[in-house]
Amino acid sequence: MDSSTTPPPLTSTASTSAEPLVRVRDVHRLFPNVYAVKGISFDIHRGQVVGFIGANGAGKTTTMRMMATLDVPTRGQISIANEDVVQRPAQVRRLVGWMPDNYGTYANMTVFEYLDFFARAYGLKGQDRAQRVQEVMDFADLTPLADRMMNALSKGMGQRLCFGRMLLPDPEFLILDEPAAGLDPKARMEFKNLVRLLSQRGKTLFISSHILSELGEMCDTMLFIDGGKIVYHGDANELRKGSAANGTRMAIDIVVADRPESISEWASVNPGWTVVETRRDGARLAFEADDPQSIAAALRKMIGDGLSVIDFHREERRLEDAFVDMIKDKSKP
Amino acid sequence: MTANPPSYSIAAAQFADWLPPMLVKELRQGLRTHMFVGAFVTLQVAMVSLLGFQLLAARDGGGTNLDDDLEQYLWIAIIFMLAVVMPLRGLMAISEETKGGTIDLVQLTHLSSVKIVLHKWLALISQTMLLVIAMMPYMVLRYFFGGDDVWFNVLALGWLTLISISLTAVCIAVSSAGTVGRLLVIGVIGFPGFIMASEFVENRDSFTSGGPPVLSLAYLLLAAIIVALTLASKQLSAPGENGTTRFRVIAIFLMAGAGIASLIDPASDSLAWIMWMIPLLIVAGLESLSEPMKEHPGIYAPFVRRGMLGRIAGRVLYPGWTSGVWFVLMLGLMFSEADYFWYTRHLQLDNAAQSAIAAIQFTMALVFPAAIMPLMPSFKHRHWLYVGIQAVCLLIAIGLMAAFNGREGITSAVLSGLLPMPAMVWEMSHGYTYTWREHVNTIVCSDLVILALILFHGRHERRQIRTLEAQAKVLLTAPSITDASLAATLTPAPES
């Protein structure tokens, strides 16, 4: 048995090194008629789970393809573990796992044969290959599907299979392009579990999605791209909280025991409050401050003014709202 | 999670370790397709039935030779399966990967584009061989029971197999084309292929009695396989991979090989070696002049490493249409020289010069679209643009021929000399026996104008090539780039 092809186990690869695993510097991508990516730069550190968010045509897939060595930047540099994706693509490919938005299927092929083919193509031989295929099938819960034809798989099963294929060479850095698109709630839950497991094992993940709330649960860092430019790179929780700092108002849901319109009347005479939405049992208000003291004082005043508040809920800012606000801010002259 | 024991076997899979992954995968898929199973069963049933008829005929004492009509039906079935059905399966080889989105996944593995294409082809021809080998016992039995000439039948089957595997390679090469392109190939390969193969089997006796130029025909089929697979692998090349140079070097070697063989071959029809290379010239023109430049310094580095000689070679071998023009001109010149030397060697000096001039004119006709195509930069489908320009040229040539039919004079000679294709057609219609001085002068002037136009249009690309060569030189001196500012100097700035 060739020891050089022995696969490492699906174990933690996390490192405490401060040096980023992925470096993207001033990357541009110009297609004949489209300027898809316009000078983006960011770092990704080992063990991070990064969400990559942008509208259709924002440059997400182009960026991801360049990182996966499937496309070449017109200008700039991308390096993964200090290997340049353009100059040393073969070395980069050993480190990268790529899961495209549509998982590729083959006709007349079973799930096991599909994984077996890719394991062979990655250079795994004999017992090592069989062991790795089995490990991956167990991890992605594909063992019961081993003999099933690929074209008989549901979308969720197919995504799990694609996920399993990506894990065959045990890559350090995983790029997932819209992995949850088209999945039913159960499959989404399974997918989130897989991501969580990989994250626990120290893998670095770069995930794009339209479903921001899901990304918020999975990712510890968010990257927003719009019009080929990075418009935000930071923590997801900060993005949710970061209202006052960004000039965005805090949303508070209030339920009262009687006369729901009393809330709106109260808000109209109290400075700093705006009615966002009136409801059957209360209203959703926006408040200009987000510090706990101001909010507590406002609640005291509400009760003091005779409102029968039975529920007062400070709503976290939704990532979708944050994203839309961000795009609006950037589009202002 | 517990489950029933899977049917796959780890131990049984060990043998496949000796085979390439793509071959294993393609065989697993291919042997399950309805098309293969259908073809296999049909041929087996046909052979068993024919053998049965022969046995019955032998028992009844009504002669041992099968009825000619029945024999004919057998061969039609074999030809249809081998020359049409099996090759056409290759039409899905690349499109299946690109449309299914699996090509990206395969490119990220250790498989190169050459291996992918080669093993896909091997898998398809293995299935063809399986069909052929399964027919062999019946061929031998028919010799014992029917008195058929087993040698001729096996020889015909061998040639059919060679034609089949060549056509399979061609089908793989065009499998990345769009639906229209593939339909066109089905039209070109399917029906005419069937007719040609039928003609061939009909006249198979002549292949053993020095009829057609067998060796050069075998060379043509081999060249078709090599060129087709090289072009197919070029379509699958990953970014930064240079499939163009590989194709061009192979084309040059094939042309040189044909030229040398034509001079060595003592047969009187050895000119066929050179003439078989005309399709290669056409493919080279279509492929090289439709190709955009690759703005990737890494591709230029191997040439730059070899100094001045490497850069000069690069002017012919770099990807892109500007170097493609020189490549086609060089290939055409080789073709013309081989043609000239063949006629000189066979002491046909009058024909030598005229044939060589016609070959040059043919080459200019191939190159001509490069003078027009840069005027339409936004036309996306460059191959179709090339074909379209050539079609218009052909129509002009036919129009001129029709207009001046029987009234040849200075006007017709000059007008037909303005464009290479009409000039070539005009000369062919006159049998190269005489040439008007005005016609030749017009040709020379128009060819010079065409070359000047091409040089003018290619000035931007040539400047880019020089920049890329300079960047490649930096790459060679600093192969490990970690500094972003250095990297920025290495890549061309995007145009807004």
Task: Walk me through this protein's architecture.
- The complex is a heterodimer of chains A (333) and B (496).
- Chain A is an alpha/beta fold and 333 residues long.
- Chain A folds into two domains: 232 residues, Rossmann fold; 68 residues, Alpha-Beta Plaits, CATH 3.30.70.
- Helices cover 35% and strands 25% of the residues of chain A.
- Chain A has eleven helices and 14 strands.
- In chain A, the strands form three sheets. In chain A, strands 6-7-8-3-9-10 form a six-stranded mixed β-sheet, with helices on both faces. A four-stranded antiparallel β-sheet of chain A has the order 2-1-4-5, covered by helices on one side.
- Chain B has 496 residues and is an all-alpha fold.
- Chain B has two domains: 176 residues, no CATH class; 237 residues, no CATH class.
- Helices cover 73% and strands 0% of the residues of chain B.
- Chain B is globular.
- The N and C termini of chain B lie far apart (55 Å).
- Chains A and B meet through strand 1, strand 4, helix 3 and helix 4 of A and helix 1, helix 5 and helix 22 of B.
Outline of this structure?
The complex is a heterodimer of chains A (333) and B (496). Chain A is of the alpha/beta class and 333 residues long.
Topology readout:
The complex is a heterodimer of chains A (about 325) and B (about 500).
Chain A (H helix, E strand, L loop, with lengths): L21 E9 L4 E10 L4 E5 L6 H8 L7 E6 L2 E2 L4 H7 E4 L11 H11 L4 H14 L15 H13 L5 E5 L7 H16 L3 E5 L3 H7 L2 E6 L2 E6 L1 H6 L8 E7 L4 H9 L3 E6 L3 E6 L4 H13 L4 E7 L3 H13 L2
Parallel strand pairs in A: 3-8, 3-9, 6-7, 7-8
Antiparallel strand pairs in A: 1-2, 1-4, 4-5, 9-10, 11-13, 11-14, 12-13
Helix pairs in contact in A: 3-4
Chain B lengths: L20 H10 L3 H26 L8 H21 L4 H7 L3 H5 L5 H34 L3 H25 L4 H24 L11 H22 L7 H22 L7 H4 L2 H12 L7 H9 L1 H11 L3 H25 L3 H19 L14 H22 L6 H8 L2 H10 L7 H21 L1 H19 L6 H7 L6
Helix pairs in contact in B: 1-6, 2-3, 2-6, 3-7, 3-8, 6-7, 6-9, 7-8, 7-9, 9-10, 10-15, 12-15, 13-14, 13-21, 14-15, 15-16, 16-19, 17-19, 18-19, 18-20
